[in-house]
Predict the structure.
Amino acid sequence: MIHAELLKALHLLTRDGKLNQDARRKLKQVTHFLGFLKPWVEDCRTNEQSIHAVDFGAGKSYLGLILADQLLRNSIRPQLTAVESRPELVEKIRTIAEFIPEVTIHAVADVIKNFSDPHDRPDSQQLLVLALHACDTATDDALIWAIQNRAKHIAVVPCCQAQVARSLKPLGGLKAIIEAPIHQREFGSHLTNVIRALVLRHVGYRVTVTELVGWEHSLKNELILAQYTGKSDLTAMPKIEALRKEFAFDHALIDGLAGWLNRS
Ligand SMILES: C[S@@+](CC[C@H](N)C(=O)[O-])C[C@H]1O[C@@H](n2cnc3c(N)ncnc32)[C@H](O)[C@@H]1O
């Protein structure tokens, strides 16, 4: 049970303890998300590893703070960092963090691209990178940070995705795929996530792509879960190259990781 004072501070419960429609939807997303993270957090505890969770594009960090309250507080030396570009939201996170003294919580007001973790990471600490509905290429920035910092676990639910849709230039008969603007947007969004999963597989993650909640709760519902194994999927890069040949698109994750992709 998430305690009422935390839910009120997050504005998920009204002052008189009521849950409105929006809050119910948000809570459903977050609790489903935690269901996917729970086995990872428990594994860390079993293996006596500490966890540093990083919530990118955090907003008020509903996800990070409820994760801290529900799962991290009982683990070993737990840490949460929330990275959010809007300073007024970062202030809110700092205030709400006081409800969870068992977890060391940092809230950073910056764009993801500029974020570098100032804290040393001991070998026994596992990084868990999260991004729930981080806008457009902010999800790619979160993935780039996760890959470069060798996050053990990654869980992202992307938001709107415009970059790939805008840049698509399909060849020949494939042009029909994006003739209608809605098809261009949806196909661009689909391709964006296909590439994200392939890049993660290429750089050594085991990847699962699934739904977060029922579609009636959110249209931005695709959950990409990745666990670092160090074993590159050798079929991933040829698949990326084949898709790029057919559709000639830009992708922030590929551009941001240019050096890494060649190395791994
Ligand atoms: C749709 S909201 C989601 C917030 C939160 N994760 C949630 O699910 O409630 C996206 C948030 O990402 C932040 N954001 C967008 N681009 C960002 C970037 N490049 N770096 C950091 N924060 C970013 C926005 O300010 C906004 O608060």
